[in-house]
Each structure stands twice: as C-alpha cells, then as structure tokens.
Design goal:
Number of strands: 14
Number of domains: 3
Helix content: 10-25%
Radius of gyration: 25 Å
Distance between the termini: 45 Å
Structural class: alpha+beta
Largest sheet: 10 strands, mixed
Amino acid sequence: MDSLRWENAARETLSVTRLSYLLSHFALEREGGGWVELPGQYAWIDAERHRTVAQLDDIPAGQYRALRFDVGLDTETNASNPSKWPAEHPLNPNLNDLHWSWQGGYIFLALEGRYRAANQELKGYALHLARDGNQTLISLVAPIDLIHGDAGVAMDFDIAALLNAPRPLSFEHDGASTHSHDGDPVVSTLRANLPGSFRINRVTSSAPAIARPSQIKPLYLPEHYTAYRFSMNGTFPIPELPRDNPLLVERVELGRKLFREPALSRDRSLACASCHVEQSGFSDPRRFSVGVRGQAGTRHAMPLYNLAWKSSYFWDGRAHTLRQQALMPIQDHSEMDESLDNICAKLSASDEYPALFRSAFGSPEITPEKIGLALENFLLTLTAGNSRFDRAMRGKVTLSSDEQRGFELFMTENEPRTGHHGADCFHCHGGPLFTDHGFHNNGLSLSESDLGRFRVTSAEGDQGKFATPSLRNVAQRAPYMHDGRFATLEEVVAHYSTGIERTPTLDPNLAKHPVGGLGLSASDQAALVAFLKTLSEPE
C-alpha cells in the first residue's frame, strides 16, 4: 500500500499508509420488500492491520436483494463513553485508534499517505472524515441467500473513486488534510465520493471464518489464590488482559520480586529495576543503559507503565507479549547476559523462591515460562493515570493559563487552510493513554545502524519508524527518543517546530507541514512544555 504507485485525477502520485473506517446501522432488504435492521452491530476495517472481515449475526432466514450500512456513527453512539466497550469490540478506542478523546467522538474514516507534488516535493496527506452528521449511507444491490445457511459478501473499496469521482480531489489545490470542520469543502467531496467507493465483488454461499476468542484456560492455576484488583483511570479503554495468565496477588508479588532480583543477570550485578528506575517513570535516567560488562546499549530504556494496553513491545515491536519481552533482556549479551537455564537453577537453589513459585503456580518447579508469566503479571499492574492533568479534568485542580494554552495547542491540528493553527500532537499521542501504540517516523535523522521497525519487518516503508511512547510521566523520564538524543522537553518540542527531517517514510501527519516543522513561536513552545509537565504523577 505504501509505495508511490497510484495517481489521482490531478495526476498527483500517491501512496496509502492508512485506510481505516467504522461501519454501523447494517440492514438487509428482503426480496419482497422491507428492510431488516441489525441494531447494535458494528465493524472496524483496517487495511494496514489486515482487518478486512466483519460478521453480522442474528439475521432472519430469507432471500435478500440489497445491503446497506453507514460509514460512521449516529450522534448518540458517537458521543457515548468510549471506555465502556469491551476490549475486542470494534468501538474500543485502544483497538481501532479512531477516537479523538478529549475533543470527543470518533473518526469515521481515516485515509493517510504521501504524495508527490508537481514540483516533485514529497508531502503528506491526512483525510479524516468525522463529526456528527457526516456518517454516510452506503447502499449496495446484492442477491443474498440466507435460507440455506450462511452467506458471504465480498466488497471492494476503491480509493481511486474516493479521490476522483464524482468530484476530483487535488491535495495541492483543495487541501492535503481535513479534520471535518463545518463548511470544509474537502469533507463534502469525501462524502460525495464515498458511496461510489464500495462495490460488490461477489456473493458466496458460505461466510468467511472469523476467529473468536476461545475458552482459554489459566496456566498453572494454584488450588488457593487471591485475585488481584486491577485499577485504572476511568477514562481509559478496557484493556485485553491475558486470559491464560490471570492477575493473582501471589503472581504479581513474585513478579515484583523478580523484577528487582539481580540473580537474573550473569554476575548478579543487574536487575530489571536497574535500567527501569521507578522514580524515572520506570525508564533510565541515562541515555543508554549499561550491561553486565560495563558496555553501553544503543537504545534508551522504554518506560514500563500502561503496558496492559500494548500489543507489541520494544522500540521496534519485536516482542508480541509481555512474557516474551521480559525474558529477552535477560538473555541479551549486551544487557544481563544470562541463560534461562542458569536463572532457573539459581532461583531453585534459593531458600525462598520455590515456595513463592508454589504459591503463584501450584508447584515449586521453576521454569522460564513461569518466570515470564510472573514478570508479565507484575508489569501489567503498573498503571499511570492520576496526574495533575487528570485531576484538572475532574475539576479538582485548575491548570495555569500556560498549561491550558499548551493543552489547546496539543489537541489542535495545524491546518492553515481552515484557520486552525495548533501543534498537531494528538495524532500520535492522543487519547487518555497519550499514545496510539503505533510506529512512526517522526522526522529524526535516519541512521543506517538502526532503522527501527525495518529490522523486524524488512518492509521499506518501515525504515526509521519507532514505537510511540506514552507521554504520561514524560517530565520524569528524560532523555527522550529511541536513542536518548534529546536531554530536555524543550529540545523535543523544538524538534517538531524546526528540526523535522524529510525522508521517504516521514509520517504523513508531519509530512503535510512546512519543511522543517510547525514553526511554533517561543511562547507556544513554552506552553506545550508546561502542559506536558502536568502529565506526571510523582506518587
């Protein structure tokens, strides 16, 4: 998707890095007339994440001749509390990354990418169809037989139609971004073109298989245990906690002890806590952590909180579970440099660990898997959600004028075409978690020695992309970026203002801005820093 190989009516060559949208108000028209509504059923489709199948349930048997649905949500659903949806629900913001959080409401459709302008300059575009009243009806003729069992409808989404017909859209002349403000002609163009973007490809006599959460049984559940009470900020979306590793007090406490256990390193000189310091936001106050032989690493230690909402770990996302991530630094020769077999032997020989493992897992046997499960249990409980900003949102304290100004800049797009001049931070750091958990090229100079996500995927479009960390506790965990190159928050904000380096994989939401960055004034930069400091919670 992300190669420059498509062309719109204005002959602008473009790529697509994101196509994501929400569907609702499904209905089927009976062969003899009349519509069967399917209330309360939603779908989230995302091309980059290969989420391309949705399932509709509880449809009466019969012959149908048409299908309709809305792209987007009605006013009531759009304004509903986003933290109420289960972890796997299409409207859970942590799953779909389509909620504008403090601004309210969902993005109905997000289309982003890069394009080459007439002067050959590579720029970015970000089209976000959203806000009440902009849900768009799609109606398609399709003979669907639901008398003899299930059926499937395969649809095509034509991006060329969305950009070209019936109204052609030029990024250079009409606008390379929209956030669906009232009266924006780019929004009316998207709404006019959207119905023609969906087409029926074929109808099948069986429905595609949908993976459903299986009845996963807990691993090594002891006969007697104490359930751990997981707590979080009430505005946070519901996380998908591991079903096979339930949070138990005994397991959490074992993980806490292992996190601080120097025996996990070869020479008993380092623990996980040595490089993930609690007072520094569970990060490292040094630019690079030092391994057992005194050697420095090449990346800054990431903060370890609100991990329950993540689905990949490390700056390059190479670990897919916390239990996997927790064991990797132990075995890394440049970090703790110990084998898992040796760790199990050392812990088994101790006076206290066999009993602790019996309490947590029902057996004194110590294995690498159980070590990973215990560390995962502990790490899942590290939540940050009670900063001064959160207390201000609850009306308990008041932000200063600079802090409030910084918040407004943070949450406002920079779109001079529509009269909006902000800092555009919320695209990658939006929501109550202050991260989209994605991977982005944020305009740092590229180094051939570390191309980030590209190491894992080998995809050209991932060069220079690194995980987006949460901004919670950001003032406590300097230095910043994957390589700790910035010592202060002032340097970070200055980077986005004047230091953006344009490379082929620069994130579209940065590439749409002027060369160099946003060009924020000194007072606006200071206000942003003041706001960022409100996200810390010393306790």
